[in-house]
């Protein structure tokens, strides 16, 4: 571990902008506009570790493609004109149709200060509760579950519980890829204490399963039934904590009776697996149940959460070292957004919109002219209201709903038909920004100042290190400016995020007096310089208390002060497979991309791990569908269609499929997965069921397949294409059902090198073509075409860009130069073939040995689960490329 000193004299401490682990980062300007990045050894989330995404942050602060000035109706504008237009349009709508005719759709990636100001403007001043956030797609079921059980939305424990537990149950969480540093903390803890056990519950096997002593391939949606079964077993085996229940819990009898009536066969798990799970849970005294989107993104998400919480309440395994339910937050400030009241059904500081005392306290504190009395529209309903014209103006900040909302094509149509759409983003070319009347350039990570709260309630500073590019402004500043222009000068007269933070901390003190848990009033008089230097700390922060766990003392925030167990009935996913749509489509994340790829897509290193949108299907299903390795397939649902590369694997069950959520129209012709996903929601939380839609899969009958590399961004027009950054340019996969007349002119249009010397080898009889573009003696582009997926070495060709074109048309390295294959270790750029060769030639038998031989896995460690899988595979996998 690095020494706990700053690595370089001018390194600044900040926080990673990706996942909810909330790692501390040391960022040092490199003098040429970029940053060098290291993990902060003193941050309590990561103690110096970073994953592949965090390590690559320096590459993503490029100003390429950034939006540098406001855009109105497609043309450059000044800030005054743009903001005056926003104000005029919003005021017009409000005057004509009332405050509920406008809406804000915001994001768990805004800093708490940005978020607080947006919420204040909408709820206190515009007077509507129509502000909702992408956290509705992410955490809403957990929020609802926590509030039902605890009377408040609180994560009871802290990260050290993961290290102290005897058993960690990971359900609906691919921690190895989505919270990699926490995963590594668990790996290290398990190594130090081999008696520690891990259970992974996920319909498919993932990188996370590698650490599991038991993997349960649960039927999609089965979690509530599984935890109901556990509750029954807990009771049957006498493992309840009778004192804790008597003194601190209500609803036990009803919860148990309902659980008794639930049939655990719906989990699809064998009796032996069910029993093994229950026995291990019951006999391990310190249990942490980690849950994430496999639980939340379900039409029974809130019930799944409460089924889990029931088991922890019944055993008193909550809020004690090594014990508790642990919801992993996704976004860097998903938790902060919950604290500032970003959801349409909440007020700031864990106060409730539907509670008259809470409303009036906030109204008085803000000196607010108007406060809504009931919850606003939740994300899915909000975009439906845009579609049917109830909402006539919407401001979308820091999120890309045309890609990330279910039934995404309907969201697109809704925004196309909306009278007035404003988008604040770092980039002007996102699928959502392209539909905006006004695009406002926002500063991004590395340029802005504020706070975020991670999964364990730790508040950390993000700090500005680089200057804003062009005319970009901070989100809080843009929103406050609109508030002032709307006539509320003093309420939005903020000069700095520190000032906003003080106000927010003061409001939390009032919330504390009203009996709420979120109280950081100890910081309400923090000075600008103290705020500047603020070290990470856990809430609450009051005169009496600093951080710590909740509920171990049996005190809850319900009216009775007791924790509530709920009777939970199993409900299957809403979409039911049929003859037309026989497969259940599960969706989620890959290791090196972040959501809609606006930032990770700019990094060549992060784009090499999985360079193309894909769909995992079982080998037997592939055989039924006539699909072979590397074929393309049409995926159709009742809502839309996509074309994806087929990845045949027994990690996934029969009848199921899995596809990543990341690809957008910037990177693929038809890779947007949310066009397929149904907008069924959980009735309590309003969270969409993003993990269980139904689809049909059919072979895409390509007349030809192609692969190209180019130093320019490719202008792909074919029926299928997917592009990714490479070190010196781009790589692009291609296919179409029609064959172009002339490959050379096709290549010129695609690769855009009109003056290049063209070297080509054409084989019309076999439908093949190999074309290289050479300018000034170096390779600037190459295209390979064949009737079946082209078997050239992607990484080798991408590496030839900008070099002498000697053997480019061979498509493979010469015999004396081995082909590294697809990147596994992003930090040291080590490919799968290199690793497989080293395992075979050097008889490597451990991940550590691979590290010694090749460096792979020795920096961020994100690829260690894949290295383990490569070691474990008795038949080394065929390289993905
Ligand atoms: N690399 C990377 N990391 C990220 C992100 C990213 O975009 N990229 N995004 C961040 C965000 S915002 C979030 S919310 C988190 C999400 O983090 P996770 O929730 O860990 O990630 P997902 O891949 O969405 O889904 C987790 C798993 O749920 C499984 N699953 C599906 N249905 C069920 C079910 O019915 N029951 C159970 N038990 N499991 C099921 C899926 O197969 C999947 O493996 O990741 C955060 N971290
Ligand atoms: N099918 C399916 N769909 C899903 C999910 C799934 O598992 N499956 N997961 C859901 C979940 S959990 C989540 S969290 C969402 C995420 O979905 P989104 O929030 O739509 O995804 P991002 O790509 O993170 O979008 C953030 C946007 O904000 C911009 N941005 C970045 N920083 C800033 C900033 O400081 N200010 C401003 N104004 N803009 C900024 C980025 O360029 C980007 O356009 O997706 C959801 N959708
Ligand atoms: S685990 Fe990775 S993505 Fe998450 S906060 Fe840490 S460095 Fe960032
Ligand atoms: Mo999320």
Automatic annotation (TrEMBL):
**SUPFAM superfamilies (UniProt xref):** ADC-like, Formate dehydrogenase/DMSO reductase, domains 1-3
Transmembrane feature ranges: none
Query: What GO molecular function terms would the record report?
Result: 4 iron, 4 sulfur cluster binding; metal ion binding; molybdopterin cofactor binding; oxidoreductase activity
User: Which PROSITE patterns does the record cross-reference, listed alphabetically?
Assistant: 4FE4S_MOW_BIS_MGD
Q: Name one GO cellular component term.
A: membrane
Keywords attached to this entry = 4Fe-4S, Iron, Iron-sulfur, Metal-binding, Molybdenum, Nitrate assimilation, Oxidoreductase
- Keyword Secreted among record annotations: no
Listed GO biological process terms: cellular respiration; nitrate assimilation
Q: Which Gene3D superfamilies match?
A: 2.40.40.20, 3.40.50.740, ADC-like domains, BFD-like [2Fe-2S]-binding domain, Dimethylsulfoxide Reductase, domain 2
State the SMART domains in the record: Molybdop_Fe4S4 (SM00926)
Q: Which Pfam families match?
A: Fer2_BFD, Molybdop_Fe4S4, Molybdopterin, Molydop_binding
The text of the family note is: Belongs to the prokaryotic molybdopterin-containing oxidoreductase family. NasA/NapA/NarB subfamily.
Q: What is this protein called?
A: Nitrate reductase
């Amino acid at each position: 571990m690095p020494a706990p000193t700053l690595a370089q004299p001018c390194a600044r401490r900040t926080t990673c902008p990706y996942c909810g682990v909330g790692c501390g980062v040391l960022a040092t300007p490199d003098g040429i506009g970029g940053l060098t990045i290291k993990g902060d050894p003193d941050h309590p989330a990561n103690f110096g570790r970073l994953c592949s995404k965090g390590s690559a942050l320096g590459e993503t602060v490029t100003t390429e493609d950034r939006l540098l000035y406001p855009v109105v109706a497609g043309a450059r504008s000044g800030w005054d004109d743009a903001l005056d237009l926003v104000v005029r349009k919003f005021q017009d709508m409000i005057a004509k149709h009332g405050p509920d005719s406008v809406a804000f759709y915001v994001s768990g990636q805004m800093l708490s200060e940005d978020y607080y100001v947006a919420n204040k403007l909408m709820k206190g001043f515009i007077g509507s509760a129509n502000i909702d956030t992408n956290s509705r797609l992410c955490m809403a079921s957990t929020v609802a579950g926590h509030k039902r059980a605890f009377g408040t939305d609180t994560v009871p424990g802290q990260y050290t519980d993961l290290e102290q537990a005897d058993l960690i149950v990971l359900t609906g969480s691919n921690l190895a890829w989505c919270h990699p540093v926490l995963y590594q903390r668990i790996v290290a803890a398990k190594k130090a204490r081999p008696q520690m056990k891990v259970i992974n519950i996920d319909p498919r096997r993932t990188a996370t399963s590698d650490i599991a002593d038991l993997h349960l391939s649960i039927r999609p949606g089965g979690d509530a039934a599984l935890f109901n079964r556990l509750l029954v077993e807990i009771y049957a085996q006498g493992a309840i904590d009778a004192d804790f229940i008597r003194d601190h819990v209500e609803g036990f009898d009803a919860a148990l009776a309902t659980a008794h009536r639930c049939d655990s066969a719906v989990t699809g798990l064998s009796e032996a697996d069910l029993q093994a799970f229950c026995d291990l849970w019951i006999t391990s005294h310190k249990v942490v149940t980690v849950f994430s989107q496999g639980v939340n993104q379900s039409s029974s998400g809130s019930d799944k959460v409460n089924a889990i919480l029931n088991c922890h309440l019944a055993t008193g395994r909550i809020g004690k070292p090594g014990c508790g339910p642990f919801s992993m937050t996704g976004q860097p400030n998903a938790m902060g957004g919950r604290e500032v009241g970003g959801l349409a059904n909440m007020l700031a500081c864990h106060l409730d919109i539907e509670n008259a005392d809470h409303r009036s306290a906030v109204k008085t504190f803000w000196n607010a002219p108007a406060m809504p009395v009931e919850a606003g529209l939740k994300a899915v309903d909000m975009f439906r209201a845009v579609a049917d014209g109830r909402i006539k103006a919407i401001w979308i900040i820091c999120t890309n709903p045309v890609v990330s909302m279910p039934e995404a094509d309907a969201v697109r149509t809704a925004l196309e038909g909306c009278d007035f759409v404003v988008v604040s983003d770092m980039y002007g070319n996102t699928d959502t920004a392209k539909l905006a009347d006004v695009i406002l350039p926002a500063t991004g990570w590395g340029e802005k100042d504020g706070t975020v709260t991670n999964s364990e309630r730790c508040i950390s500073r993000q700090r500005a290190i680089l200057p804003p590019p062009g005319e970009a402004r901070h989100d809080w500043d843009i929103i406050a400016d609109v508030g002032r222009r709307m006539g509320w000068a003093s309420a939005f007269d903020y000069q700095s995020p520190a000032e906003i933070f003080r106000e927010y901390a003061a409001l939390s003190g009032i919330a504390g007096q009203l009996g709420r848990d979120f109280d950081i009033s100890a910081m309400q008089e923090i000075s600008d310089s103290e705020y500047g230097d603020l070290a990470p700390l856990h809430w609450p922060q009051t005169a009496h208390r600093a951080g710590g766990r909740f509920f171990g003392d049996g005190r809850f925030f319900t009216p009775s002060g007791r924790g509530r167990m709920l009777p939970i009935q199993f409900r299957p996913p809403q979409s039911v497979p049929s003859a037309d749509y026989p497969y259940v489509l599960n969706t989620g994340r890959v290791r090196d991309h972040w959501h809609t790829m606006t930032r990770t897509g700019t990094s060549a290193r992060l784009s090499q791990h999985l360079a193309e949108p894909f769909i995992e299907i079982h080998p037997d299903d592939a055989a039924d569908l006539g699909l072979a390795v590397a074929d393309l397939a049409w995926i159709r649902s009742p809502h839309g269609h996509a074309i994806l590369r087929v990845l045949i694997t027994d990690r996934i069950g029969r009848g199921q499929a899995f596809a990543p959520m990341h690809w957008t129209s910037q990177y693929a012709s038809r890779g947007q997965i949310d066009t397929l996903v149904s907008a069924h929601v959980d009735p309590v939380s309003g969270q969409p069921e993003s993990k269980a839609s139904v689809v049909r899969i059919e072979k895409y009958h390509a007349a030809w397949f192609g692969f190209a590399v180019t130093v320019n961004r490719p202008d792909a027009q074919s029926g299928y294409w997917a592009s990714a950054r490479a070190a010196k340019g781009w790589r692009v996969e291609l296919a179409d059902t029609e064959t172009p007349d002339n490959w050379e002119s096709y290549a010129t249009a695609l690769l855009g090198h009109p003056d290049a010397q063209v070297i080509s080898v054409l084989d019309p009889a076999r439908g093949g073509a190999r074309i290289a573009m050479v300018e000034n003696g170096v390779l600037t582009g190459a295209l390979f075409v064949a009737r079946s997926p082209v078997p050239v070495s992607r990484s080798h060709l991408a590496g030839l860009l900008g070099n002498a074109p000697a053997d480019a048309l061979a498509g493979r390295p010469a015999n004396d130069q081995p082909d590294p294959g697809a990147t596994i270790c992003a930090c040291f750029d080590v490919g799968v073939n290199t690793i497989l060769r080293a395992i075979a030639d050097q008889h490597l038998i451990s991940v550590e040995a691979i590290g010694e031989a090749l460096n792979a896995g020795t920096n961020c460690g994100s690829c260690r689960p894949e290295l383990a899988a490569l070691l474990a595979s008795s038949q080394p996998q065929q390289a993905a490329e």
